[in-house]
Specification:
Layout: H1 3-9, H2 34-59, E1 61-63, E2 69-72, H3 76-82, H4 85-116, H5 123-130, H6 132-135, H7 138-148, H8 155-162, H9 177-202, H10 207-214, H11 219-247, H12 251-256, H13 268-277, H14 282-313
Antiparallel strand pairs: 1-2
Amino acid sequence: MTTSTKTARRGEHGKDHRPTRRRAGPAPVARGVWPLMLPAVIVTGFLVILPVLYTVWLSVSDRRPDGSNSGFVGWANFSRMLDDPLFWNSVRVTLFLFVVCLVVETLLGLALGYLLSIDVPGRRIFQGLMLIPAITASVAVALVWLLIYDPSLGAANQILDAVGIDPVVWLGDPNIAPWSIAIVDIWQWTPFMALIIAAGIRSLPSDPFEAASIDGASNWRKARHVGLPLLMPVISVAVLLRTVDLVRFFDTVYVMTQGGPVNSTNTLNVYGYRTAFIDQQASYAAALQLSLLVLVVAIAGLFTWWRRRQTIEY
């Protein structure tokens, strides 16, 4: 490079005006923003941080049913939890419902979302009707499905009887009850997944599909190799939202079975509730709920990492 070229790149004061790369990172927060954020920080501290700290204190102490506390007991509650077969059963039930519901809701939501993305007359009305299960209170949904699963008068057994199948004790059989709970959650939340995915499909760019058509790709190849990769960030958001809810499974299970029969639907959240308010063992229940918190953070963190990876790749 000649001297004249170097001089041209530098200003008249000798400064180098070549563009420099800036590291990607969070934008600095203006000082004037902190007073506006302070009320939200205080409310978050009272509603989130203080209860968590109190739960930690309960888990390492011995809170008795009469309200007295014998003081610090260390890791005794956690050691008891590791030797508790009901704890491991509740973890197994929680993970079973989590995997079954998440996989089925994602696959059905993907198929239904594609159908909802097609412009047909009355599509918006149909979308609004589909959202009704998701916006209905879970307790109300559980009560309705209790009637559907009724052994003698329920619609489920009447349908089975109409096609020549023997009646099923939906919530009384330990082998069938977890699947019955999963069906309720799938019915309630698949439309939610479908609406998110349908919105993502409608926002996809058309240029990659047109290029694939010019190259002679079939509809299946365009969906598999073009549409699905572009849709992965949207799917990951929907999966993350359902993940947090599914791991904390409580209201539907408690209303329908209260963890029975024979603890076959006893999720970790239900077990912690029963331990605290029925067995009156607050300290042990606090340890159980902290284990649930760790499980939620671990699974949500895993899916968040996966979502960021999908965003970077696509």
